[in-house]
């Protein structure tokens, strides 16, 4: 099995607990599936720097705080990924669709289908799992 590809993933979370999900655009694997925004970490790039770069490139948002939340490995048919999740409660700007993707603020997630690696995390978030990060 190939070494995993590191991916920085951000969970923009409003004070009321709503989170931002983006829909994968046509032409990418799992097009039409919903995911938390983020992208691949470039060689020599710190994971949190990749997160900040991806949010500017994809959504036009500048992240203020990014708290490490969890790391999940998942093997898709097209790639083995290591997803580094961050909870982001402070940012500048309103999300924009800079890559043509749809996005939605969700309290109790009502969009689908979700990327398989994100499904278990959605349940944890809905049960308040991200609050664990605040106590650290």
TrEMBL record:
Record protein name field: 8-oxo-dGTP diphosphatase
Pfam families: NUDIX
Chain ranges of the Nudix hydrolase domain: 4-128
Species this chain originates from: Noviherbaspirillum suwonense
Ranges in a coiled coil: none
Annotated EC: 3.6.1.55
PANTHER family, per the entry: 8-OXO-DGTP DIPHOSPHATASE, NUDIX HYDROLASE FAMILY PROTEIN
Claim: Acetylation is one of the keywords in the record: no
Domain of life: Bacteria
PROSITE patterns, per database record: NUDIX (PS51462), NUDIX_BOX (PS00893)
Top-rank EC class of the record's enzyme: hydrolase
Cofactor(s) needed by this chain: Mg(2+)
Recorded family membership: Belongs to the Nudix hydrolase family.
Keywords annotated in UniProt: DNA damage, DNA repair, DNA replication, Hydrolase, Magnesium, Metal-binding, Mutator protein
Reactions it catalyzes: 8-oxo-GTP + H2O = 8-oxo-GMP + diphosphate + H(+); 8-oxo-dGTP + H2O = 8-oxo-dGMP + diphosphate + H(+)
Classification via InterPro entries: MutT-like, Nudix_hydrolase, NUDIX_hydrolase-like_dom_sf, NUDIX_hydrolase_CS, NUDIX_hydrolase_dom
């Amino acid at each position: 099995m190939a070494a995993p590809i590191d991916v920085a993933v951000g969970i923009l979370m409003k004070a009321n607990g709503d989170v931002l999900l983006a829909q994968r655009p046509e032409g990418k694997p799992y097009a039409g599936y919903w995911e938390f925004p983020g992208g691949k970490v470039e060689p020599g790039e710190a994971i949190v720097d990749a997160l900040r770069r991806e949010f500017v490139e994809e959504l036009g948002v500048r992240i203020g705080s990014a708290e490490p939340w969890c790391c999940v490995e998942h093997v898709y048919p097209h790639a083995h990924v290591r997803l580094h999740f961050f909870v982001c409660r402070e940012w500048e700007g309103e999300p924009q669709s800079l890559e043509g993707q749809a996005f939605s603020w969700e309290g109790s997630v009502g969009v689908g289908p979700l990327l398989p690696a994100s499904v278990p995390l959605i349940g944890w978030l809905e049960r308040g799992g991200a609050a664990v990060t605040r106590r650290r």
